[in-house]
Structure formats: C-alpha cells, structure tokens
Amino acid sequence: MSTYTPPLKEMEFVLRELAQIDEIAKLPGYEDSTLDTAMAIIEEAGKFASNVLEPLNRTGDTQGSQWQEGYKVKTPDGFKEAYKEFREAGWTGMSIDAEHGGQGISVAVNTLVEEIWRSANHAFSLCPLLTVGAIHALELKGSPEMQAKYLPKMVAGEWTGTMNLTEPQAGSDLALVRSRAEPQGDGTYKIFGTKIFITYGEQDYTDNIIHLVLARTPTAPEGVKGISLFVVPKFLINEDGTLGARNDVNAVSIEHKLGIHASPTCVMQYGDHGGAIGYVVGEENRGLEYMFIMMNAARFAVGIEGVGLSERAYQRAVAYARDRVQSRDVGEKGGASVPIIRHPDIRRMLMSMRAQTEAMRALAVVTGAAMDHMKRNPDEQVRQHSRAFVDLMIPLVKGWSTDTAQNVTYDGVQVHGGMGYIEEAGAAQHYRDARITTIYEGTTGIQANDLIGRKIGREGGRTALAVIAEMEKFDAKLAKATTPDLVAIRAQFASAVKALKETTEWAIANFNGDIRGVFAGAVPFLKMWGITASGWQMARAALIAQQRLDAGEGDATFYTSKIATTRFFADHFLAQASTLKHVITAGSAGTLEMAEEAF
Amino acid sequence: MKILVPVKRVVDYNVKVRIKPDGSGVDIANVKMSMNPFDEIAVEEAIRLREKGIATEVVAVSCGIAACQETLRNALALGADRAILVETDAELQPLAVAKLLKALVDKEAPRLVILGKQAIDDDANQTGQMLAGLLGWAQATSASKVEIAAADAAEMTVKREIDGGLETMQVKLPAIITTDLRLNEPRYATLPNIMKAKKKPLDTVKPDALGVDVTPRLATLKVAEPAKRRGGGKVADVQELVAKLRNEAKVI
Lengths: 599, 252
Description:
heterodimer; A: alpha+beta; Butyryl-CoA Dehydrogenase, subunit A, domain 2; 8-stranded mixed sheet; two-stranded antiparallel sheet; 12 strands; globular; B: alpha/beta; Rossmann fold; 27% helix
C-alpha cells in the first residue's frame, strides 16, 4: 500500500534554486515567504494532506457525491469533516492578500502547497480552488460593499464560491452564453438560465454558496461584448450579515463522470421560480473581460493538478515496483525472482514518470515565481518582463503539464501490470482523475491555439523569441560543463532550442499566409515548447546540482538523482524536439488535405 | 501556572534509518528531522491546559544544535508562547539534558514540566525521571490522562499506563509528567499560527551560561543493525528438531 509523502527535498530545491525564493521574500508584501517559513508551511500542509485528505481519496472515488431530493448534494463520507478541519486550519485563505483576511503567501510557495492538495485528494481540492477563483473576481472588480459582504466569509472558507460560465450550447465559445439578467430598477437583477459543469455548485460543507454567473442583460450587444458577471448567493444576505431568503438557484442534477467522483459537477438552474436575485460585478457587459483577467490564475491552477496527480501516481508506482517480485534479473540464469523495479523497462517507466513530474513542477514553480515578480516587483520593467513571460508560459503549464500527466498516470497503471487495471490498487483512479485536466479551463487545443495565436502570432513572436534568446544564453553557460551527463544533457538541450527557434520562426512567418496550416500544428507546437521550456529548467537544476556536488555541499544522493532525471529527460524528451519540428512544419498537409466528406 | 515543555529534534518517524559505515551511530546527514512524537503530545497537553485556563504560559525548550530552532518553531506553531534553545554541538545524554532542564526550571519557575516519555531515537526513557530526581519533585510517567482542577491547584490526578492496566495517582505540584501515546491526539498547526510562530520570542542560551557540564558519561561502543532474519527450513523428524533446538538455537 502506498501512502503519499510530499517530496520535501525536491520542493525545497525548486524553491531555493529555481524560483529563487530569497528574491521573492524581498518583494514588498512577500516578506513572510522566506525559505524556512515556506518549508514550515509545506511540511504542515503535507502532514495534513497525508493524514486527513489522502485517506478519503478512494472513499471519494467509490462513493462519489450524491444528488438528493430537495436539490441537495451529499458529499462522500468524511469530506464534510475534512473540509471543516481544512478551513479551521486556515488553508482556505492562504494565497489571498492580507488586506482581505488571507495570509498573502507568494504564488511560488502556494504552487507547491496546491500540488500537495492535488496529490492527496484531487476532487476535494477543487472546492477551495473554485472558491479562490471567485474571491479573486470579487477582489478585482467587486464594489467595496460587495467585498465587505462576501470576502471575509469566503476567505475564511465559511462560504464557498463557484464559477458559472458554461451552458449547454456555450462551452469553449462563451460568446454563445444565453442566460438572462433582467434589471429590477433597484440595482438588483433577476437571473434566468441553465449552467452546466458547475464544480461544487451544491455541497453539504457550508451554509451558503456564492455563485459567480455570466449572463446577458436585455440591452446587451451580441457576442462577447454583451456578457456581464453577477454574484448570485444561494442564500441572500440580510443587512446585519445573517442569512436571509433562499435564492432561486438550484442544483437540479449532478453529472456521472469518468473521474473526480467526489467533486459534485452540477447542472444549475437559475430562475425557475421567478428569478434568482443577482448583483452585477463591476460594469455591465464586461464580464468576459473580467474572466480573462482571472484566466491565467485559473489555468495555472489546473496545470498544478497535472503535477500533483503525476507525483502521486509516481509514488504509488515506485511502492508497487519495490514490492512486487516477479521474474529474474534480465541476463541472469537461475537465481531468485526480484522486485520488478530491477527490470529495465520498469525503470524506464519510473524514470519517465519522475523526470516528467520534476520537469512540470520546475516549470510551474518558475512561472509562479514570475507571477510574484509581475505582481510585486517595484521595478516596472521587471514587472512587464515577468508578465510577458507568464503569459507565454501559462498555456504550457496548463496545456503541456496536464497532457503529460496523461502519460505519467498511464505509466502508473502500466507499472502495476494487471493490478493497475484493478481499482483497489489505486493507480486507475489517478489515471481517470487526471483525464479531466486536459479538458476543463480550456482544452489542450484551446491552450495550443492560445500559444500559437494570442501569445506568439499576434505579437510577431516578440516574447517567444526573447525567451528563446534566454535559453540560448543559458545554453552557452551549460556548454562549459564537462561531466559526461551534463555534456549529454547540453547536446539535447542545444538541439531542442535550435529546433524550437526554427519552428517558432516558421510559425511567425506563416501566421498570416497559411494560418490553417499553422494552427494544424498547434498542439505539437505546444508540446515542443513545453518540453523545451521545462527541459531548460531541468538543465538549470542539473547544472546547479553539479556545482553543489563539485563543492561537496548538501545531499549528494539528491543532486546525483537530479542529474540522472535531467539526463533521462534530455535523451527521452528534449530529443523529440527535432521530430516535432517536422510534425509541425510538414504535418499540416496530412491534417488538412482530405475532403471533409471523406471522414 | 507556567508549563515547561522540552522538545527533542529526532529523525522523522517515517525515515528508515541507516547505520554509519564505521558503526559509530545512526547516519543523520540529509535525513528529515522532526519533533519527537511523544513531545508533540506533551506540547498538545500543555496547550490544552492553557486553553482551559489552568496554564498561563507554555514555554518550549530544546537542547542541541542550532537546527533545533526548527523544532521549537514547530512547537510555537502548535501554540507554545515562547521558546528557549540551549545551544550546543556536544553530544547530549539524558543526564546532561536533565541537568540543563533543571537549570532552566530554577530560572523559569514553572509548576509543571511535561516531557515525552521517551524519544524515538535513543528510546532511553530517562530524562523525565532524572529531572524529577534532580528537582526533588513528584513524577507521573507514561501519563494517559491529566486532570488539574484549577490554576492554583496543589495537586493533580494522573492516569498512568502500566503493565496490565491503568494506575490513577494523586500527584503534588510542582511535578513532572511524561506522556504516553494515548494522552491526546496532537492538533495540526494552523496556517496563521505557522506564520505567527516566526514572530514569537525564541531565546538562545549556552550550557556554560547555565553552569552545566554536559560532558557525556556514557561511551557508545558500537551501533549495529539487527541481524537479518534467516529463512526457515524443514526438519526431517523430531530428533533433528530437538538437535537443532539444542545445538543451534540453544534454547533447550
């Protein structure tokens, strides 16, 4: 049986060396984000996750949340109590600014704590995640009265929040939103419509739920410029802050899903009994614009789901591979059967899982650190530079990491052999739970289009080429390394960066002339960027590890392992970049040629 | 009343320890260290007594290297009010720790000291008893329940886990308690308390300043791993079994 243990040494290394947490702790407002405080937080989060959240993960999967008469939802046994403990321990307000009652922890540190929640119990972690999203929306655009009314309770986790965007006809294309908001003349609106896929739209944790809802006013223009954002509380709030009348919003059913069974995915019906009372957030018709401001944070959060699930799947696979005895060592005649971790192909899978997980984590934490600088660095130029970097990295953290998590959790099943297909072993749950991450908050295709279109094509590749130039600068440094592992890593990194540059230049050059051809290669292009950008972070890590080994400092086992995982990543993944270049630049013919009728 | 809670930094209970190749001890380089679990129970009990209004202040103490500060921060995050580190790089044995604690008790004047009954590294189960001896105080070891009626109570009731049952005793204060596993279930530190812990006072003193000689009185000759279990075997008949029991196992 495998139990979750947060990879503390790895987390400390990533924070210290890659995110340069000491620099973040110098930023105004992040004084508490020092390495020792960060590690104290991460350790305690790890303890809570291992002892309280993880034991419920399988119960959550087998029982699932249940819809009950009276538009109620019953979460799996133990979830309600765990939520109470989670809230009372103060985790809900971790990333929220101190002025709104949170702890104001930096994104870099928060990234690792979020990873821990995802590893221990993905479905549980979604409720606080969505609440934080709703809090951000209110922090950003809510009026002072609105903030005073909702934020303290939400930050304390006494009320949860939801995001109501999707409708049956409006998925990736929110311009098609049809829900209506009719002004009542007193500043309030009545909301009518159906929202689907609403995570924790109903639950039995708290006595109120604050829904954020996209809808159109009667005078709104067509399309994306006519959508407004509303707050619709499940229970209206009286002047004195107590709960008032039940609002006209109900979870009319919950979905039956492939994974994350404990997370109630609700169909929300607004206004079936006269209209749900709502309050506009910010200005009318700017709802989608507000959503876009929050999109980076939301997509980033889903990217971390990829890291967390991968880490968990890896730990489970290692535990099984050490325990399961089967067959003799290859090349040995006679002798006893050995634990399967000795077999080269099992090692390949475990290394692949671990190397990719470390690569994802490095990319996420480095991006999180850039988000901290983007928000708090006193130097305007650094802020702008960080913003451009973050914008470029978000589709990678979301799109590439969640896509990679599919491979990692797939291998997690495969290492288990037949037992992997059996639910009791636990590997299958990670595989199923991970599947949603490439879909919600923008599919991989949407992320790839965002990368190649908005983030690169539209600005003529300015940021992308600047980031590639930084990779080249690092490559010049890496080129001086002389150990066989670093030489091998450098060879693959240099050729990946070269392929990435040529392919990016090709995409920029063809963006206007052959736009369908360019977009046909968007997902492989995303993959190429993901591999190279995270390979860059891995190579940075390996170089630092080598320097520490040379200096005889620190934990030699950790540093030699870091070089080994980077070597693996270089030869197995960075090496794919040149092939991907062909796929992207030559593959569109095959994708687009065949007649539509022939499908 | 003031409560003193000594906490020890030990190898985390999840770690599989390894012996140093030269047999001089357990290899703790680059190993995760945590608060001794029995001491967590002691901290929890002290905080509960403060929450009930019995205790006025909880002071956490640790003796050892500078890194013991982390362990003390942990105690502060759980709710201790302040902390004292007796800092030394010397090897500390139970008697030395008991003497250091006695010096601190003389200075701090607590009416209760709650310790873990033993630390999970050396498993000595001595410090609490030695401290009681040095102070001439009453002691209640392996406590599984502590009842103190009021802040100025002259006595307390302690249930102890003993072989074959529970012993209830009336103990005069000031006193020493050592905790057993069943005394309580330690809480998780809350995030706001982890942040606050950084700002709580943590004083450092040296053994010399306390006038204590910490020179070890015991010498470790050798540390070895337990012998590996050997596989079993079949015996052909009773004669062979008896022969093996007599000659190999030497039990008959």
